[in-house]
Design brief:
The complex is a heterodimer of chains A (653) and B (487). Chain A is mainly alpha-helical. Chain A contains 29 helices and four strands. Chain A has a two-stranded antiparallel sheet. In chain A, strands 3-4 form a two-stranded antiparallel ribbon. In chain A, a hairpin with a 2-residue loop joins strand 1 and strand 2. Chain A is globular and about 115 Å long. The model of chain A has no long low-confidence stretch (mean pLDDT 85). Chain B is mainly alpha-helical and 487 residues long. Chain B has one domain. Chain B has 20 helices and two strands. In chain B, helix 2 packs antiparallel against helix 3. Chain B starts with 14 loop residues before the first helix and ends in a 5-residue tail after the last helix. Classes of the chains: A mainly alpha (653), B mainly alpha (487).
Chain lengths: 653, 487
């Protein structure tokens, strides 16, 4: 393999995006979707070839520079590609899900006037995401990082006449910028203490960072590794929507559903998880950073899951589920089970994209109805969507044998084995989270597909199974959602797949410990059947079934009894209010004060115009001396002369 | 090199416009060899022209360029034709004189960048301000007189101090050559006074906090073309002056007072970032954003001694200065483009108030695409030119202090806040009123101007190496020069 192949993989979607975006009118609707699908399909096929090459025995990671971005101060900042097992896996996931979403979009955006623009954006996204995962240095990582943020901004605000959509897009960009603020400082620390932005050179010096110290507050030296990792993780928190920087993700559902699946579930939001795994040589140097990652991930997994239970918008339920699952991945990273985090990232990419696209299929069928209280009984009308949704939901709750079972159980077990501070807390959060996941997933599933039909008149006439361009991606995504866990858990987690790409130091190696006990997927499955997580998730499904199908009065009763908790959840722990009323208004208030007091009153008022007035005032006083009478002037001269003579005489004396 | 074509008002079919454009384009073409034939390996002055001018005082007509001045000259010759094209129809009053003024201004700005004789530099500097006053004072908005007087007093007061410093240096060096000033040993007291005199002159034009308030007023009142030149080129005189005079002539005083300049730069970045957030006038918002972005220029230039003081080593110093330079060029493109965009909107609705717009994308989709691109460049998105300078300066400032980097990096949040909030209110949303509903999209002429600027912004963002390369020898030379004490 050579760099031409990598360049082709990233440029195919970019060129397709330019054609569809700049020449949209010229190529027309068919032209736009043909060229972008061809571009992404080419990327996908080439990525599969790359993966095959990487899997060949004795294959070396590919690391090559394409061009030098700039050289200053002896630091070469370059654009180049690093392809190892981790990258190859991400490339396949990204391009495959992207391809499915491209095809699906033909059906979903069929009537939209911004058809070509949409295809241009999602192809551009694929380009940026590939640049992110294939980067071999921090500068390019940041390029991809902000690039996907830009496309996310454009796509959330895709329907730009909707005030809620453009507010959500601005919010997403701002929150991500807070993350990037940390991220760029992390990059600066890395460069400052290693003298390079190149992964290989930085990682080679990683061990030395732990010993070096940086004094942010005088008298409190911190390990450089800790500072760098925490700053980088702030970036990951925003991108991967970890609390408290998660608030933008639910609002991002204002965007069209295909991008919710692609960007806000399967790929972009997992960039933070990928980044931490990529930086494992750095994170392994700081126990403090790992603990922070662990605690934040576990807290997010649990608390956002709770909110998911009280949501009524079908997309928002799936969005909160995404937040919660991202929390699981992050927790895995904190426990140094990077491979498990990436494995869950992969399975989640398939089943969550599937769930979103299925939700989109329902939304289209009901003529853009998104409230699950107005659905029900759709099983009869939409069989393909029903069965694929069931597959996705079972994968999500970790039903034995489904892909999500293997990846999630691996995370829970790894966290259970971890010994770093906070691991017990995280373990408990994840366990409760299993129950909550099953509860909200099947609450939604039952309310949408089972029970009585609560559709309004218009929707009832309209309801039908979606066309093949929508159902085909559902089926193609359902296959890996169900199947990939069994064959891949062995090689990916315990077979040394990530050797060389992910580094785990000895005492943190929980997956290694699990690997010694691992006797094939069958044994793992049997072990899972007797475990607590399975019981908890079955309990969740059972509660959902009882509360929403068997005894629909129950939820109301609970709501009345637990009013305070319910209000807290519906208001999302008041974090949005805090962001908007304290942070946003606060910044505006401070800005307003600085402007009105600092600029207008003090600088312009007192100093600038004040000095002008002072000149006026002095001039007015001095002018009175100019009377025009000769004897006034003569008198003044005499006084002056007397004073001067007096001074000379007295000085002489 | 000095081609200031002067087109007198030709009567008839407005041939003067084509004449002026021809002159500007010819100047640009004539300036291209500066780039292609530039020797990138040396910090010596190139393309030198040296003739006696006033022999009694040893004043010379002495021009030449190095890695600092050459990119700024090209920026000038590139932007001037675009300004003329942009003003093709929007100026109604005395259009011939308007075009002529811009050509005169261009010639004087090139002269300022190229002058290597201090008195010649001063003459160009002062002379250059006059067409700028005229542009604001004649073709400006309602409060143009206030703005012009304020602009005049600020810049004139600043340059008087500079003149005193230059004359003092002449007396000490017995020469007006700036290169002789560089080699002149000076005591600390002398250096501090000279430094302060220079700082007043250059800080006003950068502009640095707290002498920045001339800029919002000047921008708001200036016509679109005037704003473009003011933001894109005139402000760069300040940064250029610091690099050409303050650092090399008085390095010890620069070292002593660097913490003050760094402090003022950080105030500019943080304070102005917040102030920009609450502006209701689009031009004022972009003007404040300019002040914040120029803060990166002064920060990058003065980091040197903070880095040396902390690490006792050189890495990072050249990166800071390079970052400052790249930021100047990039800001030329980005702020210029944004002021063009403001002009496009103002031509149509005759208001600069954010509240008067909303949903422009519905009626002007091409314009909206450009506007969002330039907004993203203003936000410093990687891939656009706005990222390069800020990135380098933030990286370099961490070498000096974690806190410098932290405060500088707040621009990621504030710039996104003020820029995109404006975009949200102006560009996106449903059509806000009849005015917006009646807008027509940009024509071919406007498309050409914005397209060329967009190409520049992307080219510099995706591949800044060529620009950095032409500067590197001069940057390295400056670094080694300023680290040698003159005491």
């Amino acid at each position: 393999m050579d760099s031409t192949l990598c360049i082709a993989i990233v440029l195919c979607p970019l060129l397709a995006s330019l054609v569809a975006g700049l020449g949209g009118r010229l190529v027309g609707r068919t032209g736009a979707h043909t060229v972008t699908i061809a571009g992404v399909a080419a990327s996908c096929v080439l990525s599969l070839l790359v993966l095959r090459d990487q899997l060949a025995p004795g294959a070396e990671p590919f690391n090559e520079t394409v061009y030098t971005w700039l050289v200053t101060d002896g630091v070469r900042m370059q654009v180049g590609f690093l392809v190892d097992h981790l990258t190859a896996l991400m490339m396949v996931v990204v391009t495959f899900v992207s391809l499915m979403v491209h095809i699906y979009t033909i059906g979903y955006m069929h009537d939209d006037p911004g058809y070509q623009r949409f295809f241009s954006y999602i192809s551009l996204f694929t380009f940026a995401m590939l640049m992110l995962v294939m980067a071999n240095n921090f500068m390019q990582l940041f390029f991809g990082w902000e690039g996907v943020g830009l496309v996310s901004y454009l796509l959330i605000g895709f329907w730009y006449t909707r005030p809620t959509a453009i507010f959500a897009s601005l919010k997403a960009f701002m929150v991500n910028r807070v993350g990037d603020f940390g991220f760029i400082i992390g990059i600066a620390v890395v460069l400052g203490y290693t003298g390079s932005l190149d992964y290989q050179q930085v990682f080679a010096q990683a061990a030395s960072l732990q010993g070096r110290q940086i004094e942010i507050f005088s008298g409190m030296p911190w390990s450089v590794a800790t500072v760098a990792c925490l700053a980088l993780f702030v970036g990951a928190m925003a991108k991967s929507a970890q609390m408290p920087l998660h608030a933008w993700l639910p609002d991002s559902m204002e965007g069209p559903t295909p991008i919710s699946a692609l960007i806000h579930a399967a790929t972009m939001v997992t960039a933070g998880v990928f980044m931490v795994a990529r930086m494992s040589p750095l994170f392994e140097q700081s126990q403090t950073a790992l603990t922070v990652v662990l605690v934040i991930g576990a807290t997010t997994a649990l608390l956002t899951g709770f909110i998911g239970v009280v949501q009524n918008d079908i997309k928002r339920v799936v969005a909160y589920s995404t937040l919660s699952q991202l929390g699981y991945m992050t927790t895995a990273l904190g426990a140094s089970a990077y491979a498990a985090g990436i494995f869950h990232l992969m399975t989640h990419a398939f089943f969550k994209a599937l769930l979103f696209l299925a939700a989109g299929s329902v939304i289209v069928a009901l003529h853009h109805e998104q409230d699950i209280r107005k659905m029900g009984g759709l099983r009869r009308h939409m069989p393909v969507t029903y069965w694929t949704s069931l597959a996705g939901s079972l994968a999500l709750i970790g039903f034995p044998g489904f892909s999500g079972f293997f990846s999630k159980d691996a995370i829970i077990e790894a966290v259970g084995l971890a010994t770093i501070p906070g691991a017990r807390y995280a373990f408990v959060c994840l366990m409760i989270g299993v129950f909550v996941t099953a509860l909200y997933s099947f609450r939604m599933f039952f309310l949408v597909f089972h029970g009585e039909e609560r559709l309004d008149e218009e929707a009832r006439h309209h309801v039908h199974e979606s066309p093949w361009v929508i159902t085909l991606p559902l089926v193609l995504l359902a296959i890996p959602s169900v199947m990939i866990g069994w064959p891949l858990i062995g090689p990916v987690l315990f077979g040394g797949y990530f050797d060389g790409a992910i580094l785990v130091t000895g005492e943190h190696d929980v997956l290694g410990e699990m690997g010694r006990e691992f006797h094939g997927p069958g044994a793992f499955l049997l072990h899972g059947l007797s475990g607590l997580p399975l019981l908890l998730s079955l309990a969740g499904v059972a509660v959902a079934w009882y509360a929403y199908l068997r005894n629909p009065a129950l939820p109301d009763l609970v709501r009345r009894k637990a009013g305070g908790v319910y209000t807290l959840l519906v208001n999302k722990y008041y974090l949005d209010d805090f962001n908007e009323k304290i942070l946003m208004r606060g910044a505006q208030g401070v800005g307003g004060l600085l402007w009105r007091i600092g600029d207008v009153v003090l600088i312009d008022g007192a100093v600038v115009n004040g000095s002008a007035q002072a000149v006026d005032w002095i001039a007015a006083r001095v002018r009175r001396g100019q009377t025009g009478y000769l004897y006034h002037y003569a008198f003044a001269m005499i006084i002056g002369l007397a004073a001067l003579l007096g001074w000379i005489v007295f000085r002489g004396a | 090199m000095l081609a200031s074509g002067r087109s007198d008002a030709a009567a008839g079919a407005r041939a003067y416009r084509w004449l002026a454009l021809l002159a500007a384009v010819a100047t640009f073409v004539a300036s291209l060899p500066l780039w292609t034939q530039f020797d990138r390996t040396t910090a010596h002055m190139q393309f030198v022209e040296r003739h006696a001018w006033i022999p009694a005082f040893r004043v010379e007509y002495f021009l030449g360029v190095d890695g600092f001045s050459m990119p700024l000259i090209l920026l000038t010759t590139f932007l001037t034709p675009l300004v003329l094209i942009a003003s093709w129809e929007s100026v109604k009053l005395r259009q011939a004189q308007y075009f002529a003024t811009f050509l005169i201004l261009e010639g004087l700005m090139i002269g300022t960048f190229a002058a290597l004789d201090a008195l010649l530099f001063y003459v160009f500097w002062e002379a250059m301000l006059i067409p700028m006053f005229v542009i604001i004072g004649v073709w400006g908005g309602e409060r143009r007189v206030y703005a012009t007087v304020k602009f005049f007093l600020y810049t004139f007061l600043g340059s008087v101090f500079m003149l005193v410093a230059l004359v003092y240096l002449y007396v000490r060096a017995d020469s007006y050559s700036i290169l002789d000033f560089h080699a002149l040993p000076l005591s600390m007291t002398e250096q501090v006074w000279i430094f302060l005199a220079f700082l007043v002159a250059f800080a006003v034009i950068v502009p640095m906090w707290p002498v920045h308030t001339l800029l919002p007023d000047a921008h708001v009142e200036a016509p679109a073309g005037g704003s473009v030149i003011l933001a894109a080129i005139l402000l760069k005189m300040g940064g250029y002056g610091l690099l050409r005079f303050s650092l090399p002539v008085v390095p010890d005083a620069s070292a002593l007072l660097a913490p003050m300049v760094i402090g003022l730069s950080l105030v500019a970045i943080v304070y102005i970032g917040l102030v920009a957030l609450v502006q209701q006038d689009m031009k004022k918002l972009i003007a404040y954003s300019s002040v914040a972005h120029m803060g990166f220029v002064t920060l990058g230039i003065f980091l040197a001694w903070a880095i040396l003081g902390r690490t006792g080593d050189m890495p990072g110093i050249a990166m800071g200065i390079t970052g400052g330079m790249v930021q100047m060029i990039s800001h030329g493109f980005v702020s210029g483009a944004l002021f063009f965009c403001m002009g496009v909107l103002y031509d149509r609705l005759h208001t600069r108030q954010i509240a008067a717009y909303g949903g422009v994308v519905n009626t002007m989709p091409h314009f909206a695409a450009f506007m969002v691109l330039f907004a993203m460049a203003n936000v410093g998105l990687p891939g656009t030119s706005g990222f390069v300078g800020e990135f380098l300066v933030i990286l370099a400032s961490l070498q000096a202090s974690f806190w410098y980097a932290l405060l500088a990096a707040t621009t990621l949040i504030t710039s996104a806040g003020y820029t995109l909030w404006m975009i949200k209110r102006v560009v996106f949303g449903p059509v806000a009123n009849d005015g917006v509903a009646g807008l027509h999209d940009i024509n071919g002429r406007e498309f050409l101007v914005l397209g060329l600027l967009a190409a520049s912004v992307l080219a510099l963002g995706l591949w800044p190496a060529p620009l950095v390369e032409v500067m590197s020898a001069s940057v390295d030379h400056l670094v080694s020069h300023i680290l040698q004490s003159k005491l």
